Amino acid sequence: xxxxxxxxxxxxxxxxxxxxxxxxxxxxxxxxxxxxxxxxxxxxxxxxxxxxxxxxxxxxxxxxxxxxxxxxxxxxxxxxxxxxxxxxxxxxxxxxxxxxxxxxxxxxxxxxxxxxxxxxxxxxxxxxxxxxxxxxxxxxxxxxxxxxxxxxxxxxxxxxxxxxxxxxxxxxxxxxxxxxxxxxxxxxxxxxxxxxxxxxxxxxxxxxxxxxxxxxxxxxxxxxxxxxxxxxxxxxxxxxxxxxxxxxxxxxxxxxxxxxxxxxxxxxxxxxxxxxxxxxxxxxxxxxxxxxxxxxxxxxxxxxxxxxxxxxxxxxxxxxxxxx
Length: 324
Known about the structure:
Elements: H1 2-14, E1 25-26, E2 46-48, E3 51-53, E4 58-61, E5 66-67, E6 73-75, E7 81-83, E8 91-92, E9 98-99, E10 118-125, E11 130-138, E12 150-158, E13 166-173, E14 181-188, E15 194-197, E16 200-202, E17 207-214, E18 225-232, E19 238-245, E20 253-262, E21 275-285, E22 297-300, E23 312-315, E24 320-323
């Protein structure tokens, strides 16, 4: 279903002038770490879907920019080529664990980021690899109380056995836009650097589509090139990483949906309504055959955390609903 719609989306994108902000810049609008950060995280760090990073290590990719398959350069839309920057600072997992460089070998088969960020998620894994993952969702109401918290909701892909990077089409509150929802596509964290495609603001009630697909021939176990698209189907605005590198990963761990938070003090800091649904889920193997039942399983990481907000989930092959 998704591959059949790719040509339509491609024609739509070709008709849009996307060659703007073609330079390589560090993200400036992301939220600061805040007073509720772990004690060892510096105050000048910013919040990303992959934890706390020095601002110089968050690279904002303009539309049309490509992380080259050789994993060493960024091909800009205006044909300029830059080397992928190596972060000169450690970054920190949401629980405050310090990381230098990428995270190869640091997480193994443990859940992605146990601590004060990943609260709950639904996932599945395969012994081979995946070729595509897609989901739809609707932008929820704003949180009842705004204490400067950051909320991320997203599907994603990782390597179950050797986590170096994660591909994520992300919906975020208080992320790129203060007191508002926005979407962005992310790839993190080779050489300690996290890459964010151009974000765009979205409105409550808008229908969002998040897709990740490989650009290799059918049956390629470890495709080196992926596209990550986060699109507002209501307005037509989008954030896309084109041909982004897999960083040598085999994406065999799929997340139908995850809830990640920073600086949440009370349950009213969550979006109003108490639940969030990822629906029309589509998961394909590396031969682009869709799974009729991916076998999603739920993981709750909230034990011992404050606040406790009724975390849980209901699962079906095509819909995952997270409760908070």
